[in-house]
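FAQ: What does the model actually see?

It sees only this:
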Amino acid sequence: MNPEFSEVGNAFVQHYYELFQGDRSQMLALYQDDSLMSFEGAQGQGLQSIGEKLERLSFQSVQFQFTEIDCQPRADGGIVVFVLGQIQTDEDPIKGFSQVFVLAPTPEGSFYIQNDIFRLNLHNFASEG
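And it is asked to produce this:
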């Protein structure tokens, strides 16, 4: 297990969301061909599919605020990262979001995003009649 999992996970979060808020075209370098992304339930696997998803995001500006960042080491040297926070796109209302990453180690000693799951925290409770 990676003894620096918390430091690596937190540094990854800062880097990932800086790219997301700035130049999303650079984000694809964080993924590899076996990466899997689920964005609001729509899944894509591989660099081409993930790149297309990132290009199709309809908003121009985005801001994130983090409530919690939790990191756990994996037995294979990877890291699980859970992010809870708030997102605002363009002039839309602020919404809660959750995102989970599985960071897999590379032979070169760095990490890439093997799994990425993003969900807005929207709750549609049925009204009691």
